[in-house]
């Protein structure tokens, strides 16, 4: 009986090592320097305001936070959100050396009495572990940070396609009692895809309060690959502001997964007006469509932005069948997943054996 206790501790530590590995950032096999937009769940440690959350995560404008959470666009920043509520945080992702982490944002400024552990586990609710903050910021001694020091918080993310299609990798906070099958169903993906992406070989490895890489299908776009917001990833039922807030895009699966963008009509804070969003040589503005002719119609579609130019193009779309290539089959290559579980199991067993020998 005596061996049960150390065995348990060892198994637990093996599992926590796995959790650690998982929160290091999601797998991102794209070449280093690939960037994309991403989303992660943040459970509020304290009751606070939307503006404070916006600030903490360096979100460019409140509208982005509101859009990510499907809140009315005129919601004031002074609106309070209660402790333990969950907000979706939009942020830019960077692939680096096989792993995706937030692209040098958010930057947190150290205040008196801060410690790396407190910042990671409490301020950022465990979205990162303190060693990762230490690592990406090149801090030699975890106990030596100074007031005013700026720390890059590396949130986990990915820009990889999933089953050959663009996807937004959502860092989903696993609620107690949920199952891989349930999460797969909720987010319209498959169990095998979730296991594979998260390096799990068995659904029973799912842990409450961990951040799971959940790929969300996104609307098709014609955004150019040299655009500042390429690849613009917008999942079903969500909207996003882009082109410095000048363009608002919405994805609705019911519209054949075609991204619908229009001029946001905002006046930018510096008083500058937005560049033209008209389709060249036409009377169409962004988002205008022609009347259907059979199954066809034209749309003035968003093609990205660069400097102070917004690209638009008149595109043809079909209103009858899904656009080519993206049917709803979920036939993902399942494979046997990574060897993570087997290795940690073997490791666990050998540690137990070692421990037993010493006992
Ligand atoms: C937030 O907390 C306040 C007071 O505790 C409560 O009245 C309110 O309903 C809560 N709001 C939400 C969205 O839970
Ligand atoms: C990339 O990862 C490899 C192995 O995982 C590591 O040896 C190397 O130092 C990493 N390079 C950078 C720039 O982080
Ligand atoms: C939450 O509030 C408590 C009490 O006001 C404070 O001590 C703590 O530092 C706050 N936590 C965060 C993450 O701001
Ligand atoms: C998954 O793990 C559970 C509990 O650890 C075990 O009962 C089950 O047989 C495993 N399934 C597979 C396919 O390995
Ligand atoms: C970007 O798109 C152009 C064609 O539009 C293509 O020739 C080029 O290879 C693409 N570049 C990258 C990095 O994908
Ligand atoms: C898309 O999102 C809407 C809610 O915004 C939902 O009702 C619908 O079922 C979703 N469709 C798909 C295919 O996910
Ligand atoms: C284009 O859309 C705008 C706003 O949605 C509308 O005011 C305008 O009349 C439309 N133009 C055409 C040519 O359909
Ligand atoms: C619809 O578009 C297809 C090709 O995109 C074309 O072959 C067909 O003639 C068009 N139909 C109508 C009614 O315009
Ligand atoms: C546009 O951006 C590119 C690269 O960022 C830069 O080289 C170029 O000078 C810019 N052009 C203008 C007109 O600002
Ligand atoms: C959906 O795609 C799969 C694989 O890409 C293909 O085998 C299947 O025939 C397609 N189904 C339809 C209805 O197009
Ligand atoms: C999965 O594992 C089983 C047993 O370990 C093996 O027989 C099978 O070939 C493997 N399949 C793949 C796709 O690796």
In short, what is this structure?
Helix content is 23%, strand content 23%. With 359 residues, the protein is an alpha+beta fold.
Textual characterization of the structure:
Strand 14 and strand 15 (309-318) form a beta hairpin. The chain contains eight helices and 15 strands. The strands form five sheets. The chain has a six-stranded mixed sheet. Strands 11-12-13 form a three-stranded antiparallel sheet. Strands 3-4 form a two-stranded antiparallel sheet. The protein is α+β, with helices and mostly antiparallel strands and 359 residues long. The chain has a domain at 239-318. Residues 1-22 and 323-359 have low confidence and may be disordered. The chain is globular.
Main traits of this protein?
15 strands, binds 2-acetamido-2-deoxy-beta-D-glucopyranose, disordered C terminus, 6-stranded mixed sheet, 23% helix, alpha+beta, 359 residues, 3-stranded antiparallel sheet, disordered N terminus
């Amino acid at each position: 009986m005596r061996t049960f206790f150390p065995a348990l501790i060892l198994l637990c530590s093996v599992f926590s090592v796995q959790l650690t590995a998982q929160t290091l950032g999601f797998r991102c096999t794209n070449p280093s320097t690939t960037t994309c937009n991403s989303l992660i769940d943040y459970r509020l440690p304290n009751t606070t305001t939307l503006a404070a959350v916006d600030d903490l995560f360096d979100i460019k404008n409140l509208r982005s936070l509101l859009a990510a959470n499907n809140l009315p666009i005129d919601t004031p920043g002074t609106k309070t959100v209660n402790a333990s509520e969950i907000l979706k945080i939009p942020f830019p992702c960077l692939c680096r050396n096989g792993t995706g982490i937030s692209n040098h944002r958010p930057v947190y400024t150290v205040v008196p009495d801060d410690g790396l552990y407190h910042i990671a586990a409490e301020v950022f609710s465990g979205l990162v572990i303190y060693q990762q903050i230490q690592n990406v910021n090149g801090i030699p001694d975890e106990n030596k940070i100074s007031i005013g020091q700026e720390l890059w918080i590396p949130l986990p993310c990915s820009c990889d396609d999933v089953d050959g299609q663009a996807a937004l990798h959502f860092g989903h906070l696993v609620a107690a009692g949920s199952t891989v099958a349930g999460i797969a169903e909720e987010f319209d993906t498959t169990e095998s895809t979730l296991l594979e992406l998260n390096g799990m070989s068995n659904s029973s490895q799912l842990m409450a309060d961990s951040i799971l890489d959940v790929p969300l299908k996104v609307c098709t776009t014609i955004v150019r690959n040299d655009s500042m917001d390429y690849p613009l990833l917008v999942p079903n039922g969500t909207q996003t502001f882009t082109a410095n807030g000048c363009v608002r895009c919405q994805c609705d699966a019911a519209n054949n997964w075609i991204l619908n963008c229009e001029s946001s009509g905002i006046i930018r804070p510096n008083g500058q007006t937005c560049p033209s969003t008209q389709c060249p040589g036409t009377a169409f503005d962004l988002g205008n469509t022609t009347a259907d002719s059979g199954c066809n119609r034209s749309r003035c579609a968003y093609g990205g932005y660069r400097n102070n130019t917004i690209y638009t193009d008149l595109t043809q779309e079909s209103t009858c069948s899904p656009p080519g290539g993206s049917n709803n089959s979920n036939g993902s290559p399942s494979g046997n997943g990574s060897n993570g579980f087997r290795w940690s199991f073997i490791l666990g067993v050998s540690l137990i054996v070692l421990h037993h020998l010493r006992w």
